[in-house]
What we know:
Chain A is an all-beta fold. Chain A is built from no helices and eleven strands.
Amino acid sequence: xxxxTQSPGTLSLSPGESATLxxxxxxxxxxxxxxxxxxxxxxxPRLLIYAAFRRATGxxxxxxxxxxxxxxxxxxxRLEPEDFAVYYCQQYRTSVTFGGGTQVEIK
Amino acid sequence: xxHLVESGGGLVKPGGSLRLSCVASGFTFSDHYMNWIxxxxxxxxxxxxxxxxxxxxxxxxxxxxxxxxxxxxxxxNSLYLQMNSLSVEDTAxxxxxxxxxxxxxxxMWGQGTRVTVSS
Lengths: 107, 119
């Protein structure tokens, strides 16, 4: 099973700042079969990024994904108030697993 | 409009069984792999199972130890999860999610149905 480790656990930032979230895989996620999701309290997750860097339909361009192999990142430039949420990475290269999540909170 | 609506959650005693349903609308259901994902209270997401569009291929998380069974009825645009031998560790919100076409990420999620296993 591919284990995904997300860091940091919590990121405290102010609106307008940029956020960089990390997702490290225990083995290579070849083919870049990696996605990022946003989840707000009481809501279902929403797909942001798939195939490591492709934005899902309707996702603003302030969200960007990068990385390959075992190290991936999600960058949110110019945080908007609605961006404060929990973010999960997911690999679908071998079965499916999720990372433990990073909470982006208002400083 | 694309919708996934789960139902069937509730309170069940340890050792009991429950069947969850997910009804899809607004898209060609049989074109898509479908998934179940769960989230224990205050915890992260845990993938449970998937089923192919035609229903002939399934996969489960190792941790389930054969207690759950996924199925679908494309004529009814419905996805199911039969859960047996439930334990308190199965307490969670259960989401159904669609795998997108041309991608393997989950591009549409239902609102979830809550399952509580308690004596």
